[in-house]
Amino acid sequence: MSELPGAVDRLAEKVRDFVIRDCIPEEAAWRASGEEVSEELRRALMARARDAGVYGLHLPKAFGGAGLDHRGKAKVLEAAGYSMLGPLALHCAAPDEGNQHLLDVVAEGSHREDYLRPLCEGERSCFLMTEPGGAGADPAGMKTLAVRDGGDYVINGRKWFITGALGARFAIIMARDASAGGAPTLFLTPMTTPGINVIRPMEVMAHDSTGGHCLVDLVDVRVPASAVLGEPGQGFRYAQVRLAPARLTHCMRWLGAAQRSHDVARSHAAHRHLFGDLLGHHQGVSFQLADNEMDLYAARAVTAQACAVLDAGSQGRHESSMAKVFVSEAASRVVDRSVQILGGLGVTGMTPVEHIYRSIRAFRIYDGPSEAHRMAIGRRSLPKGDDLLPDLTDF
């Protein structure tokens, strides 16, 4: 690992202490508002994180981070996820964390100063890939088109479920590039570029971000050729640079939220008396707590193994897909059992578990639904070449 394990553990503990002290007290008023996290609250929490020395630990050292590898990030981001406000305070929430990683790997020259630096310093961004009609789980169905016009590109299309679009400083746009045979190209451009129209935020199950999940129209958006991120026609390859680690950072943050739900449930089970005994002593509840412990343990192990593959230099597409499916479903089970253990209390706003329950449901869809990942995992598992066994049905 890039840091000694003990040092990473101390960083994670520092983050957890910060989250408990500075983020959790802000949750009740925010949840009661029923609104997105305001930009004012986000910036106030980032200022507190800077004062506490925990802001941006996941960032590369050149931009103020701790230079952690993926296994180190796993511990720090899980600690941040213990509060739904923690990732916003540390500026490691989606989509910004994924965009920070993508730009650090791919961006060169002025793109690093004009886009990556302000993003690392606390500005927000958005990633315009997903489209109505399925071009999210299946980007091959993308219809947004970029056409060369002299020294510029002109982009037209519609994007949706674009997290953080309201108030974002810039966008990374994925569009089919007519000059590259229709292969996707990534473009960097300010959100103030004429023709980028945020139509409206889409109503979602739970509000736990800043800037909404928006419908965005691109109407004759003209950008210079210098706006191309990396090389033309390499959008799919660069998207994998972003998406494989981003699946794992989703796992990390949501494990923190699942642990929080489990902690609330087990504390309740240790205090509540029912039918002449502690609630947690009844087998039905004890078994649910045990299943939570096992799901959390296994989810951390799966995430750590996938992180190790990335740290070894592999793209980790197969491993990150498996981790994303397993952790999203295991963490959802943990939160669901926590609601059940809490009983009537679990469906009220008197604990954070009800909000986490609504929020975590989307995790099985974000960054590819479980079904799309299962399809890819299954196809990759088919033996090929020297691994291909004789057809056992061919007598």
Radius of gyration: 22 Å
The tally of helices reads 12
Would you tell me which CATH topology of the largest domain applies? Butyryl-CoA Dehydrogenase, subunit A, domain 3
N-end to C-end Cα span: 51 Å
Could you list the spans in which at least 5 consecutive residues all have pLDDT below 50? none
Which architecture of the largest domain does the CATH hierarchy give at level 2? Up-down Bundle
Average predicted local confidence, pLDDT:
95
Family: Belongs to the acyl-CoA dehydrogenase family.
Cofactor: FAD
Subunit structure: Homodimer.
Domain Acyl-CoA dehydrogenase/oxidase N-terminal: 10-123
Describe the overall structure.
The chain is an alpha+beta fold and 395 residues long. The strands form 2 sheets. Strands 1, 2, 3, 4, 5, 6 and 7 form a 7-stranded mixed beta sheet that branches. The chain has a two-stranded antiparallel ribbon with strand order 8-9. It has 12 helices and 9 strands. 48% of the residues lie in helices and 15% in strands. The chain has 3 domains: 5-93, Acyl-CoA dehydrogenase/oxidase, N-terminal domain (Butyryl-Coa Dehydrogenase, subunit A, domain 1), CATH 1.10.540; 125-233, Beta Barrel (Butyryl-CoA Dehydrogenase, subunit A, domain 2); 236-381, Up-down Bundle (Butyryl-CoA Dehydrogenase, subunit A, domain 3), CATH 1.20.140.10.
